[in-house]
Design a protein that fits this description.
This protein is mainly beta. The N and C termini lie far apart (38 Å).
């Protein structure tokens, strides 16, 4: 469990790596990280990330990393009731689901951009992402609320 922490001015706020499973990251405040506020990747599965505040990330608020293909991707994670504010530069992304990620749920998250829309995206979904659940997310102030790049 990672609860009620404050992370500021790091490269990455919370970095899930090498098979983190059944973890809970809750109630954390993550500000001004150079790359991403939260990064989930290498065989990180079945985790819950909820009620965190992520502000002013340098590139992306929450990143699901592509890793080395389907067997290494971050599957079955739940991102719930997080507030993600002012992510990245002019082409920044609030939540970026990359690679062959499967079974992820993005539920009741709030993505807010107050600096102007520019070319910013709320949620970006990679072409090989499968079984993604999007429920009741609120996205405001970005140019593209949801960029779904999956094949039809």
């Amino acid at each position: 469990m990672i609860r009620n922490n404050t992370v500021r001015h790091s490269a990455i706020g919370l970095f899930f790596c090498w098979g983190v499973k059944f973890a809970l990251a809750e109630g954390n405040t993550i500000d001004d990280c150079r790359q991403s506020g939260i990064s989930i990747g290498h065989r990180d599965t079945d985790n819950v990330v909820r009620k965190n505040t992520i502000r002013r990330s340098g590139q992306v608020g929450v990143l699901f990393r592509p890793e080395r293909g389907k067997n290494f991707a971050p599957h079955r994670n739940r991102l719930e009731a997080n507030r993600i504010e002012n992510s990245g530069p002019e082409n920044g992304v609030g939540i970026d689901v990359q690679g062959c990620t499967e079974g992820v749920a993005l539920v009741q998250n709030e993505i807010v951009e107050t600096r102007g829309p520019a070319q910013r995206t709320g949620i970006r979904i990679a072409p090989d992402t499968r079984d993604l659940r999007l429920d009741d997310n609120r996205i405001q102030g970005v140019a593209v609320p949801i960029a779904d790049l999956r094949k039809a």
